[in-house]
Amino acid sequence: MAFDVLSDQGLDVAEQLGLVFSLPDDLKEVYQGFGLDLPQFNGDDSWQLPLPARLIVGGDGVVLDVEASADYTDRPEPAATVARLREVVG
Length: 90
Fold this sequence. Notes:
Elements: H1 12-16, E1 20-22, H2 25-33, H3 38-42, E2 48-50, E3 53-57, E4 63-68, H4 78-89
Antiparallel strand pairs: 1-2, 3-4
């Protein structure tokens, strides 16, 4: 089974889908306290992160399946993604 995987540097697609959040100032301070330079890592000063999500989109652009969570520790497992691909697209 062959399929394309989207890389969304800049969060353009995630933002269009409502899957982006901005870190509040107090959380920015926590990140900085741990030496995490999110603006340098992301290549912009937005202090934004995407929600963990998996979307399966058909060749016609129709979304066939979505798994998303506001909990950053709850991420779709790769094996579950492949299994879901097989279920949805055969």
